[in-house]
Amino acid sequence: MNILLINPKYPETFWSFKHVLRFISKKAAFPPLGLLTVAAILPGGWQKKLVDLNVEPLTDATLDWADLVFVGAMLVQRESAQEVIDRAKAAGKRVVAGGPAFTAAPELFPGVDHLVLNEGEITLPLFVRDFLAGTPQPRYTSAEKPDIAKTPAPLWQLIKMKNYATMSVQFSRGCPFNCEFCDIIVMNGRVPRTKSPAQMLGELETLRKAGWRGSVFIVDDNFIGNKDKVKTFLRELIAWQKARKYPFTFFTEASLNLAQDEELMRLMSAANFHKVFLGIETPSMDSLKECSKLQNTTLDLAKAVNSIQSNGMQVMAGFIVGFDSDTERIFETQMQFIQRIGVVTAMVGMLAALPGTRLWHRLQAEDRLLGETSGENTDGSLNFIPKMGVDTLVKGYKDLVNSLYAPKEYYARVNTFLKHYRPTAFSRVTWSETVALFRSFWTIGLRSHARLLYWKLILKTLFTKFKAFPTAVEMAICGLHFEKCARRMREE
Fold first, then answer.
1. Which residues 6+ apart lie within 8 Å of 408 measured at CB?
2. Which stretches of 210-314 are DSSP H helices?
3. Average pLDDT of span 270-294
4. Residues 97, 345: Cα–Cα separation, whole Å
5. Are 167 and 212 in contact (CB under 8 A)?
């Protein structure tokens, strides 16, 4: 069997880093980890090719080669995924689809022959069994949660690593919290399942031997969902990193209660974690209680951010406007809060009702749903009727994002962040990073309207906080991307 796995295109979004990638001569930010893992689950005797439409086109010759076309996607990739399905069907190919988009809303994707939903470790072998027997079914689902300690390592040989800014691995699935708007617990459950330390170190060793150095994204829903197991893994990771002279820097996603565990922060720092994405959401206690994000109500949010940054990790964070408890004052409140705590990479989105979540069911019962979500909460689109009114929310949101990423406000956050940041990660300056620095001199330092702010940041960091210099350069480049994304959304 010839198996073609296709990763659809991502639109230009906050997380696409489209305008950053050209600085470092990369084609995409992240590889399609899900499809690489699916490839490893499929029979070893099958021939496999992977086409990531974010780095290369799908040729007719490659499509002709395939016996089966596998498509994996998230909701934000919906448009491109449907184009792939339509093209494959026009070529007479049988299409197999799975992943978060198809699991959440299979009815949105006509033309799929076989839907392999939920977690592939369970449903994919069922499809393969029936396919080999000549009796494949149109849909495979399962509520069973697999033991991911048995999940095979991704087939990295199917991609060219040089095309990507970072590699990705997964340590755990699931999150112990119960936020109303989150679909992670719908798909992956509230009991975090983890891989073993030996399994993780084996995957990392495979990456290292393949020649990868630098950034690795641990893609977990909540990396610290099971603190005991993550601490055990980190202790072994620290020894592994030290013995190999720190080939990787790590970043991940976690809950804000990370700031309450000094030991965990120290272990992450010692393992060479330099960034962490947190779901802060809002400084409004009423809104946090409304969405059941109670874990954030027991913390001083600003002190929590400062504590994590003082342990050598840059805090990136998600924020939301549009809760029922929000009034028109929330936009200014969010703006002042984000500026005060110095979260530079602040992903602010409007509340979205994702299929299957408690929020989706509540709004459906209240007859407030407007349609399907785009899957991209920073594109300025709404799929429900907010209490403050659609026009008020959309306008306030667009004004907020454009204010946040205006150069003056953005560079002010960078400087606030640098006051608290105590860089600890060991990293090597790569050739692509050196090239990015000189490109930033030209693109931002000479041609950008932010050039004076840029040079002030560069020179100040160079002479007063040299260890943070690479981070300052990276933030300046990312600021250009965020500003362009905000401007595009405002004009739509």
1. 453
2. 227-243, 262-270, 285-290, 301-310
3. 97
4. 33
5. yes
Contact 180, 362 (CB under 8 A): yes
Half-sphere exposure of residue 269: CA atoms within 13 angstroms, side-chain side: 21
- Listed residue (275, 274, 285, 276) closest to 256, CA to CA: 276
**Using CA atoms, how far apart are residues 202 and 143, in angstroms rounded to an integer?**
29
Residue 127 structure tokens? 């499809």
**Are 9 and 78 contacting, i.e. CB atoms less than 8 angstroms apart?**
no
Q: Is 47 helix (H, G, I), strand (E, B) or coil?
A: strand
**Overall average pLDDT of the 123-146 stretch:** 98
- Residue 296 to residue 17: CA distance in whole angstroms: 28
Q: Name the token pair of 7.
A: 């990763």
Q: What is the pTM of this model?
A: 0.95
pLDDT tens-place string over residues 34-60: 999 999 999 999 999 999 999 999 999
Q: Which residues contact 390 (CB under 8 A, 6 or more apart)?
A: 382
**Any alpha helices (H) in 281-354, and if so which ranges?**
285-290, 301-310, 330-341
Give the dihedral of Cα atoms 211, 217, 223, 228; nearest 10 deg: 20
Residue 169 pairs with which residues in a beta bridge? Answer: 218
> For residue range 209-255, what is the model confidence (pLDDT) as tens digits?
999 999 999 999 999 999 999 999 999 999 999 999 999 999 999 99
CA separation for the pair 211, 162 (Å, rounded) = 10
SS3 assignment, position 281: strand
Those residues whose C-beta lies under 8 Å from the C-beta of residue 393, and which sit 6 or more positions away, are: 321, 322, 350, 382, 386
Q: At a CB cut-off of 8 Å and minimum separation 6, what does 201 contact? A: 236, 237, 240
Q: In the numeric block, which tokens belong to residue 370? A: 């407007």
pLDDT tens for 410-438 read: 999 999 999 989 999 998 888 889 999 99
Q: Are β-strands 114-116 and 248-254 bridged in parallel, bridged antiparallel, or unpaired? A: unpaired
> Could you report the per-residue pLDDT of 440-460, keeping only the tens digit for each?
999 999 999 999 999 999 999
List, in sequence order, the alpha helices (H) in 405-447: 407-420, 431-443
Smallest CA-to-CA distance from 400 within 471, 489, 469, 462 is with 489
C-alpha to C-alpha distance for 104 and 340, rounded to whole angstroms: 37
Helix, strand, or coil (residue 57): coil
Q: Cα–Cα distance between 428 and 245 in angstroms, integer?
A: 10
Do the beta carbons of residue 344 and residue 410 sit within 8 Å? yes
CB 3 within 8 A of CB 45: no
b/e per residue, 339-353, with b = 16+ CB within 10 A? bebbbbbbbbbbbbb
Q: Work out whether strand 172-173 and strand 193-194 pair parallel, antiparallel, or are unpaired.
A: antiparallel
Got the DSSP string for 297-313?
TTS-HHHHHHHHHHTT-
Point out which residues pair with 273 in neighbouring strands: 250
C-beta of residue 414 within 8 angstroms of C-beta of residue 339: no
